[in-house]
Amino acid sequence: MSRAELLSPEGLRIDGRRPAELRKITSTTCVLSQADGSAYLEHGNTKVLAAVYGPREARHRALVLHDRAILNVELNVAPFSTGERRRRSKNDKRLLEMASFVKQTFEPVVIATLYPRSQIDIYLQVIQHDGGTLQACINATTMALIDAGIAMTDYVCACTAGWVEREAAIDLNYIEESSDTSEVTIAMLPKSSKITLTQMESRLHVDKLEEVFRLAGEGCKQMYEVMDKTIRDRAEDLARKMAV
Amino acid sequence: MATPAFTFTPSTFQKLHPAEFFRRFTTEGVRPDGRLLDAFRPTTVHHGVISTANSSAMVRIGGTTVVCGVKAEVAEPKLDAPDQGYLVPNVELSPMCSSKFRPGPPSEQAQAVSEAINRVLKESKVLDLKDLCIEEGKAVWVLYVDAVCVAYDGNIFDAALAAIMAALKNVRIRKPTYQEGTIKVSGGSTATDENSFTLNLARAPLSATFAIFDTTLTILADPNVTEESISDGQISITLDETGLLCGVTKIGAASCSQSVMRDCVQSAKKRTLQLRAIMSQQ
């Protein structure tokens, strides 16, 4: 079985992008009628829906903290989202791990001390999967939390980066992820450029690490521009409607 | 000395006496959200929202949103029907769609709705299952129809059935190739008329649900989540495209007369025509 060329001689990737180019991003907030905050995010063909409920009364009294809110993240991958139908059970370790990544990413950023003895529930639904699920989940969660009006110290913007054949590239799609490329996901606070999450499972040469990280940081900044614009447009829209 | 009168703000009154609050509206012929008693909420249907699925659709009825994806897989046929494929419908009501649902195994409501839809699809013979046969006794297509509710504002049955029927309308399945006793399905290139075929729906049943509000025997079309919680019963009417009844369900403590049933069927006929028009537009 011949492996498709991931990087053409002209330096174009398998979907025609340049290495430092993000996929087309579509984002909307306030898409669900029942949740306190919600967001829908598309990174190319990866589609994620995030819903935030809270702060609300905690489900298990035993877990309640007297001085801050607890975060609960649940990740659900729809059976029709991947190439072959895979009915992932709720306790699938991979999903639980990803959900705990999202939770740990947001725990230092959400100002939980403002909402003692309560719980903030974040539900993520992956509708279509084409690489970069974790980055899409984190970005969608940021927007949904802002839509819910939950106080945070900064946006959290995430981006995947990796080494595709001979160059560092960002926002890897499914084909690039599943082949031999190394892939790292980084979540960053854009104002301070601090990194709240780094996740990598493949092998990457130490010399290439800096380049990959730098490119991922730039990708996160680009994500921030897009997300901020969506949030501001929506806020302006609401302000205009309320002023009438 | 006059006894002091209690006055409440409308929202407090709604919380203390939900049924009485509701009755104040229905006696005037409207509902708290401004609809008439027999009005259905605005409905939108979008086809082909998910490219990884064989077919997909998203339906919004008011605030209730359901996303449905169909995936076809090869499997061994059931022993009693070796030349037929089969459908596996499933409706998911996760905690994401409403605070009513808790995390964990599928709730009773989700299972009940899944089973009701399964019954409609099977008994109405929506698809000719022989179309799904690849090799008799050895391999058939199984269609996994997953309807995920992302926002729940009442009337999940109508929304889920509409989403499932919209998705089943144009399912494109790749033609399998036989190679030394094994079935191979190509995944690579885009589906064209040569390497794939479209399934034809034999019948397309759609439903209309009504809630029964007992004290004044008021029938409310398309209940939202607040109306569902205070209703005493529900009537669901399912009709196919020729106007034939495919299913009638009435549950709950309220008892209703035959004329009420007849009115519901007439209202359902109008509603399903409207739904079909919306579905064929997009």
TrEMBL record, chain A:
InterPro entries per the UniProt record, alphabetical: ExoRNase_PH_dom1, ExoRNase_PH_dom2, ExoRNase_PH_dom2_sf, PNPase/RNase_PH_dom_sf, Ribosomal_Su5_D2-typ_SF, RNase_PH
Record's keyword annotation contains Electron transport: no
Top-level taxon of the source organism: Eukaryota
Domain Exoribonuclease phosphorolytic per the UniProt entry, residue ranges: 21-150, 154-218
One GO MF term: RNA binding
GO cellular component labels: chromatin; cytoplasmic exosome (RNase complex); nuclear exosome (RNase complex); nucleolus; ribosome
Location(s) in or outside the cell: Cytoplasm; Nucleus, Nucleolus
GO biological process terms, semicolon-separated: exonucleolytic trimming to generate mature 3'-end of 5.8S rRNA from tricistronic rRNA transcript (SSU-rRNA, 5.8S rRNA, LSU-rRNA); nuclear mRNA surveillance of mRNA 3'-end processing; nuclear polyadenylation-dependent CUT catabolic process; nuclear-transcribed mRNA catabolic process, 3'-5' exonucleolytic nonsense-mediated decay; poly(A)-dependent snoRNA 3'-end processing; rRNA catabolic process; termination of RNA polymerase II transcription, exosome-dependent; TRAMP-dependent tRNA surveillance pathway
Pfam families in the cross-refs: RNase_PH, RNase_PH_C
Subunit architecture: Component of the RNA exosome complex. Specifically part of the catalytically inactive RNA exosome core complex (Exo-9) which may associate with the catalytic subunits RRP6 and DIS3 in cytoplasmic- and nuclear-specific RNA exosome complex forms. Exo-9 is formed by a hexameric base ring of RNase PH domain-containing subunits and a cap ring consisting of CSL4, RRP4 and RRP40.
Protein name (Swiss-Prot/TrEMBL): Ribosomal RNA-processing protein 41
Organism, as annotated: Linnemannia elongata AG-77
Lineage of the species this protein comes from: Eukaryota, Fungi, Fungi incertae sedis, Mucoromycota, Mortierellomycotina
TrEMBL record, chain B:
Family named by the database record: Belongs to the RNase PH family.
Subcellular location: Cytoplasm; Nucleus, Nucleolus
InterPro entries: ExoRNase_PH_dom1, ExoRNase_PH_dom2, ExoRNase_PH_dom2_sf, Exosome_comp_Rrp42_subfam, PNPase/RNase_PH_dom_sf, Ribosomal_Su5_D2-typ_SF, Rrp43
Key words, A-Z: Cytoplasm, Exosome, Nucleus, RNA-binding, rRNA processing
Any one GO cellular component localisation term in the record: cytoplasmic exosome (RNase complex)
Single GO molecular function: mRNA 3'-UTR AU-rich region binding
Coiled-coil annotated spans: none
Main localization, broad class: cytoplasm
Any one of the GO BP annotations: exonucleolytic trimming to generate mature 3'-end of 5.8S rRNA from tricistronic rRNA transcript (SSU-rRNA, 5.8S rRNA, LSU-rRNA)
Highest taxon of the lineage: Eukaryota
Name of this protein: Ribosomal RNA-processing protein 43
Organism of this sequence: Linnemannia elongata AG-77
Domain Exoribonuclease phosphorolytic residue range list: 40-173, 205-271
